[in-house]
Amino acid sequence: MSKTVLITGASRGIGAYAARAFAAEGYKVAVNYFKSEDEAASLANEIGGIAVKADVSDPLQAEELAKKTLENFGHIDVLVNNAAIALTQKVICDVGADEWDKLFAVNVRGMFNCTKAALDSMITRQNGKIINISSVWGITGGSCEVAYSASKAAVIGFTKALAKETAPSLITVNCIAPGVIKTDMNAHLSEQDYAALKEETPLGRIGTPQDIAGAMLFLASPAADFITGQVITADGGISI
Ligand code: NAP
After folding, report:
1. Which domain holds residue 10?
2. Mind listing the pLDDT tens digit for each residue in 160-205?
3. From atom 18 of ligand 1, which residue's Cα is the shortest distance away?
4. For ligand 1, atom 17, which residue shows the shortest CA distance?
5. Does 17 participate in catalysis according to the annotation?
6. Is 176 in the pocket of ligand 1 (CB under 6 A)?
7. Binding site membership of 33 for ligand 1 (Cβ less than 6 Å)
8. Is 14 within the bounds of a domain?
9. Catalytic choice (17, 27, 33, 148)
10. At what angle do helices 146-166 and 97-104 cross, to 10 degrees?
11. In this structure, are residues 4 and 77 in contact, taking their beta carbons and an 8 Å threshold?
12. Does 15 sit in the ligand 1 pocket, CB within 6 Å?
C-alpha cells in the first residue's frame, strides 16, 4: 500500500517543494491550495497526485479537504500543516485587530481545522504522523513580526499538547521551525537583506525549501517513530 501525505499550502514555496520530495519517495500526495489553482493543478499533474482547493481557515473546507484525500487515497499517513500567511513587517501598534484575526485564522485555526479533519481516520488506523510548520520567530520572536511570531509560538504549544493526547493512538506530532527560506513569503527582502541574514547565519547561507522538506521526510519516516512533541529547528544555526 502506498504511503500518503496531505500537505496544506502546497501550491507554492516550501509546500510545493515538499510535495515533489514526498512524491519522489513514493508517496501519493494531496496538494492543497487556496488561490494558486494553476500552480497546484500543474504540480499535482507532474507528481501524479491530486490538487484540492480549500481555505484551511474554514472548518467545512478543511473537512472537505480531508474527505477528498481519503476518497482518493483511502487513508492519510502524514498530514503536513504548512499553509500560513504573514503580515507586512510593522510595529504592533499598527497591526489591526482584523489583520491579527485573519493571520491567526489561517496559521493557527487552519492547523486546528485540518488536524481535526484528518485525525479520525488516523485514530481508527492507530497510525499517523502530523508535522506542523512553525518558525524560528515562534521560538525567538521577531521584531515587527509580533502577530506572526505569536501564531508560530501557538503552533509549538499545539504540537506538544496534541503529541501527548494522540500518543496512545500511536500518532506522532512534531514541528519544524524553519529559519529564513527564500520563498514568496520573503519577497519583501532585498538582496542586501539576504546578504545580511546570510552573514548572521553560522552555516553561511540562506535556507532553501529543500532544507525543510528534508526535515519533513525524516519526521514522516520510520526513523522518527519514537520522536513526538519535538521542535526541529532548521535554520542554519541563526537561532543559536
Ligand atoms: P509561501 O511561499 O507564501 O506559500 C504559502 C502557501 O500557503 C501557498 O501555497 C498558499 O496557497 C498557502 N495558503 C495561504 N493561505 C492559505 C489558506 N487560507 N488556505 C490554504 N492554503 C493557504 O510560504 P512559504 O515560505 O512556503 O511558507 C510555508 C510555511 O513555512 C509556512 O507555515 C510559513 O509560516 C513557514 N515558514 C516560512 C519561512 C520562510 O522564510 N519562508 C520561515 C519560517 C517558517 P495559495 O497560493 O494557493 O493561496
Report:
1. 4-234
2. 999 999 999 999 999 999 999 999 999 999 999 999 999 999 999 9
3. 55
4. 55
5. no
6. no
7. yes
8. yes
9. 148
10. 30
11. yes
12. yes
